[in-house]
Amino acid sequence: MHNDYYYGISSKEAGNNPLLSTYKADAGVDMGLEVMATYQLSSRWLLVGGAEYTRFSSSVTDSQLVDKSNQTSVMAGVAYMF
User: How many other C-beta atoms are found inside a 10 Å radius of the C-beta of residue 77?
Assistant: First the structure.
């Protein structure tokens, strides 16, 4: 249900765009790896960072809305502890 909501293409949507055809995305399992780290700058401030790699299942990559089979994300931030 989650995959079809985000990656499926209804007949109405396909009818509005001649480049799309209907697609019902089945359930699937995405594989991923995430690494997070923190570094204490002081007694109250932290530096936070991380990276994530996700490989999408075929039920996602078979959709015409998706053009890559994987995704990489990087994040950085600071945190203040009360």
Answer: 10
pTM of structure:
0.75
Count the helices and strands in the chain (H runs, E runs).
3, 3
For every one of its 82 residues, what pLDDT tens digit does the chain have, with 9 covering 90 and above?
689 999 999 999 999 998 899 999 999 999 999 999 999 999 999 999 999 999 999 999 999 999 999 999 999 999 999 9
DSSP assignment of 28-61: ---EEEEEEEEEE-SSSEEEEEEEEEEE--HHHH
User: In this structure, how many other beta carbons lie within 10 angstroms of the beta carbon of residue 21?
Assistant: 10
Task: With H, G, I as helix, E, B as strand and everything else as coil, classify residue 10.
Answer: coil
